Amino acid sequence: MLPATLGRLTRYSLLLLVATASFWFSPAPLTEDEYCGTYLHLSSFAGFMANCDGFEYMESARYPARLLEPQAVRQSRPLYVLLGTAVGYPVTWVMQGLQAGGLLPAAVVAKLPAKYQPLLGFYIGYVLLNFGLLLGALLLFRHLYYRLTDGRGQPLVLAALLVFLISNQVTKAFFWTVHQQMFTFLVPLALLWLALQLRQQPRWRAALLGLALLGGLLALAYGSFVLVLPVLIYGLWLLRRQKPLLTLTARALLLTSLFVLPTLLWILLLQLRGVAYYNHEAEAYHQLVWLQGLWLQPLPDFLVLTGANLAQFGTTLPAIAPFLVAALAAGWWLYGGAPGRPTGLTELIGLLALLTGFLAGLGYYKERLTFMLVPLLLLVAALALARRPPGPRGSALLLAAALGWHVWQVASYGPFS
């Protein structure tokens, strides 16, 4: 068991590194107006983007007390910054040791922009976090692939789907920089895995209170983990035939209270230090805050705003159009194929609806955010391909198409942030 696991980790790590390193050779930006950050040249024909958001992440990881300052930009995501601290300092010490031993020439570090030189260890630490998050997403996708297909999935089909998962505009722009976008792939897969555990493992439904507290902690690392709460409410709903409605309602309130407890304790800590809690995403981008207009402004005005926001959300969908088309075709194939409902289809479709509603309601719309739908859309395609296997030639063609997709991603211009 252990050798197989280590072999899988090695293969997936190599796949991840080869795919993402190839983005170094993508066309460099032509003007500084096309990105926010610094383009770091590895050579005359290779380089990658250091996103402008990364500097604040690194400085906060270097000095975590910055989180306690008024209007600290990363104050709403303290656990992710502390992860950066936990990884960044050991990497910094290793880098200092390499420099002291002459294994890392000072001239190499001197070529970096001045503001990045003292933060190099934290930069590498955050990239290691990106690696861990994306590797976790790949392994979780593999698990869900075989779980949803009842073990009938084909390795070549899985390989092709993994290439699509790794190679896209989000990994191209954000894997080699300091950012949180690798959660884009991990969060939806983790939510689906949790929903399946709640459905198929009764002991998980008995642990809902602990899961609520854990989910609340994760929400302090990345905001989209707030969707753990509705998944846990789904776990309560599964008990509807065993528990009276009043009991379930009381438990739902208790779940919600435990889920928000970590955030409330963090806000209390800030207030004890005389600092008002600051959520940069809500203040700067009005994420979800615009929904308050439902009771703060006349209904016609709110409906106009809603229409405008939904139209803006719609402009991000072309970025994932190939995956949407594939999933729709797969859905038609599913219902036109063998009888019976595939394992986990209810949870998969339900989460697609939940994520779509969440993204549409954010009030801040970017293509990179809408990519949260892609891992689940790929699993819809996986279900169809398992129920109607394409055969060796078809699987090979699918893998060839995935490799062609990756080549196109590498050769295409942008995105850079």
Automatic annotation (TrEMBL):
<feature type="transmembrane region" description="Helical">
    <location>
        <begin position="348"/>
        <end position="365"/>
    </location>
</feature>
<feature type="transmembrane region" description="Helical">
    <location>
        <begin position="317"/>
        <end position="336"/>
    </location>
</feature>
<feature type="transmembrane region" description="Helical">
    <location>
        <begin position="208"/>
        <end position="237"/>
    </location>
</feature>
<feature type="transmembrane region" description="Helical">
    <location>
        <begin position="120"/>
        <end position="141"/>
    </location>
</feature>
<keyword id="KW-0812">Transmembrane</keyword>
<protein>
    <recommendedName>
        <fullName>Glycosyltransferase RgtA/B/C/D-like domain-containing protein</fullName>
    </recommendedName>
</protein>
<keyword id="KW-1133">Transmembrane helix</keyword>
<feature type="transmembrane region" description="Helical">
    <location>
        <begin position="79"/>
        <end position="100"/>
    </location>
</feature>
<feature type="signal peptide">
    <location>
        <begin position="1"/>
        <end position="27"/>
    </location>
</feature>
<keyword id="KW-0472">Membrane</keyword>
<feature type="transmembrane region" description="Helical">
    <location>
        <begin position="176"/>
        <end position="196"/>
    </location>
</feature>
<keyword id="KW-0732">Signal</keyword>
<feature type="transmembrane region" description="Helical">
    <location>
        <begin position="153"/>
        <end position="170"/>
    </location>
</feature>
<feature type="transmembrane region" description="Helical">
    <location>
        <begin position="371"/>
        <end position="387"/>
    </location>
</feature>
<feature type="transmembrane region" description="Helical">
    <location>
        <begin position="249"/>
        <end position="269"/>
    </location>
</feature>
